[in-house]
Design brief:
Largest sheet: 4 strands, mixed
Order of helices and strands: HEEEEEEEE
Oligomer: single chain
Structural class: mainly beta
Radius of gyration: 21 Å
Distance between the termini: 32 Å
Shape: flat
Strand order of the largest sheet: 1-3-6-5
Strand content: 35-45%
C-alpha cells in the first residue's frame, strides 16, 4: 500500500519534468495575426506565413532589424502544388515563410513589409507587424 503514493508521486514528477524538457510547439502566424502581441518561451520557433506573388516584383522582407531576442533562421517562397495539366507554376501566387527563433528573453516588435525592392521611396503596399514577448523557461 505504501508503494502506491510513491508511484503516483514519481509519475507526476515525470510529467512535470517532461513538460519542460521538450521544446514548445512552434508559434504559427499569418496576416490575420498582424497587430497582435504573442508570448512564447525561449527557444520557441516562430513561423510566419504571408501570401506573396514574386512575379509581380513585390516581396516580403524584414524591415526592422532583429536584435538578440529574435533570430531569423530561414525564409523561403512556397509555391502551391501544381494542378493536373499545369505542371509549371510561373506567375502563380504562393506563400512566403519566415522562421525565427526566440533566442533570448525580452520583447521585440517585428515589422515585415511587402514592396518592390527598386521602389525605395514608395511606401509598402502591405505590412505585417507583431510584438513578440519571450520569457525564460521556468527551471
Amino acid at each position: 500500500m505504501r508503494k502506491l503514493p510513491l508511484t503516483i508521486f514519481l509519475c507526476c514528477l515525470f510529467v512535470v519534468v517532461s513538460a519542460f524538457r521538450y521544446p514548445s510547439p512552434p508559434l504559427m502566424l499569418t496576416e490575420a495575426d498582424s497587430g497582435k502581441t504573442e508570448t512564447v518561451y525561449q527557444n520557441t520557433k516562430i513561423i510566419i506565413h504571408l501570401a506573396s506573388n514574386p512575379s509581380t516584383g513585390y516581396s516580403w522582407r524584414v524591415s526592422t532589424p532583429t536584435n538578440t531576442v529574435l533570430t531569423l533562421l530561414s525564409q523561403r517562397f512556397i509555391t502551391p502544388t501544381p494542378q493536373p495539366g499545369h505542371e509549371h507554376n510561373v506567375g502563380v501566387p504562393g506563400t512566403m515563410e519566415f522562421v525565427f527563433n526566440a533566442s533570448a528573453s525580452g520583447t521585440e516588435k517585428l515589422l515585415l513589409t511587402y514592396q518592390r525592392s527598386w521602389e525605395k521611396t514608395k511606401p509598402a503596399t502591405r505590412y505585417f507587424m507583431v510584438t513578440i514577448r519571450v520569457r525564460a523557461r521556468p527551471h
